Amino acid sequence: MKSFVAAPLVLAVMGRAFAAAAQGGRVATAGVYSKAQADRGMTLFADACARCHGSSMEGLDVAPPLTGPRFLGNYLGQPAAALASRIRTSMPLDMPGSLGQQASADLTAAILAANGYPAGDAELPSGSSAQQAITIDAVK
């Protein structure tokens, strides 16, 4: 029975991702961040995020995982701006809003890399309007 429920959800999410791509947007599987940016994000993650989310982004206590099905269930079909904005406005939990746009973009790149999204040649933009045009699609 679960497969009947999951199938429409998967189709709806995939439809949104294809629609975004058709409207001139990009998808995360096309390589929307650079390796150098993801490396910067991982360094920042180790300093500001690992104590709550775990060193491998596995999630600890009440902090959710930033990799795997639970993470993707929250962000699949969403613009990269949704993740970057969440990071920028509410993290870290003890100092919400202390991360700027560039740090949030770097952390988003690190999270995408940890979820198997490929690096590209250019960095993930730090501006939310540019991030809005990038959809987090399913990694194959």
Question: What would you note in describing this structure?
Answer:
It is a single chain. The protein is mainly α and 140 residues long. Helix content is 55%, strand content 3%. It is built from 7 helices and 2 strands, in the order H-E-H-H-H-H-H-H-E. It has helices at 2-22, 35-48, 50-53, 68-75, 80-90, 101-114, 128-132; strands spanning 26-27, 134-135. Strands 1-2 form a two-stranded parallel sheet. Helix 2 packs across helix 6 (101-114) and helix 5 crosses helix 6. The protein is globular. The two termini are 24 Å apart.
Record the SSE blueprint.
Layout: H1 2-22, E1 26-27, H2 35-48, H3 50-53, H4 68-75, H5 80-90, H6 101-114, H7 128-132, E2 134-135
Parallel strand pairs: 1-2
Please give a handful of descriptors for the protein shown.
140 residues; mainly alpha; two-stranded parallel ribbon; 3% strand; globular; disordered N terminus
Strand order of the largest sheet: 1-2
User: Percent helix among the residues?
Assistant: 55-70%
* Biggest sheet details: 2 strands, parallel
Principal-axes geometry comes out as globular
From the alpha carbons, calculate the radius of gyration and give it in angstroms: 15 Å
Give the quaternary arrangement of the chains: single chain
What's the β-strand tally? Answer: 2
How many separate helices? 7
What distance lies between the first and last C-alpha atoms, to the nearest angstrom? 24 Å
In short:
This protein is an all-alpha fold and 140 residues long.
